[in-house]
Amino acid sequence: MGTGALSRLRAEALMLPEAERAELAYELVKSLDAPPDAGVADRWDKELLRRLTEIDAATAKLVDRDEFRRRMQARLGSR
User: Fold this and answer.
1) Widest pairwise Cα distance in the chain
2) From what superkingdom does this record's organism come (predicted)?
3) Out of 10, 22, 47, 63, which could bridge 67 as a Cys pair, Cβ 3.0 to 4.6 Å?
4) Residue 16 shares a structural domain with residue 49
5) What is the 3-state secondary structure (H, E, C) of 3-55?
6) Residues 2-56: pLDDT tens digits?
7) Do 29 and 43 have their domain in common?
8) Whether residue 44 is found in the same domain as residue 65
9) In this predicted model, what pLDDT tens digit does every residue of 41-77 receive, in sequence order?
10) How far apart are CA 6 and CA 1, in angstroms?
């Protein structure tokens, strides 16, 4: 794919709604990953169940989206 085509594709992708951009980004990153580790899916399932259990038990400390973004920007900005 030439530079012009890549620029057009990037511009079109940036015009997508946020949810569709996120899905596209996920698929692109996934395509770069090494072959899946057989145990990863099981470990993620266990981690998700653990987190959901904490949420259901009201023992998880949840933050809203704005707070999450502030924390991530602060963390990434400190590198």
Assistant:
1) 53
2) Bacteria
3) 63
4) no
5) HHHHHHHHHHHHCCCHHHHHHHHHHHHHHHCCCCCCCHHHHHHHHHHHHHHHH
6) 789 999 999 999 999 999 999 999 999 988 877 777 788 889 999 999 999 999 9
7) no
8) yes
9) 889 999 999 999 999 999 999 999 999 999 999 999 8
10) 7
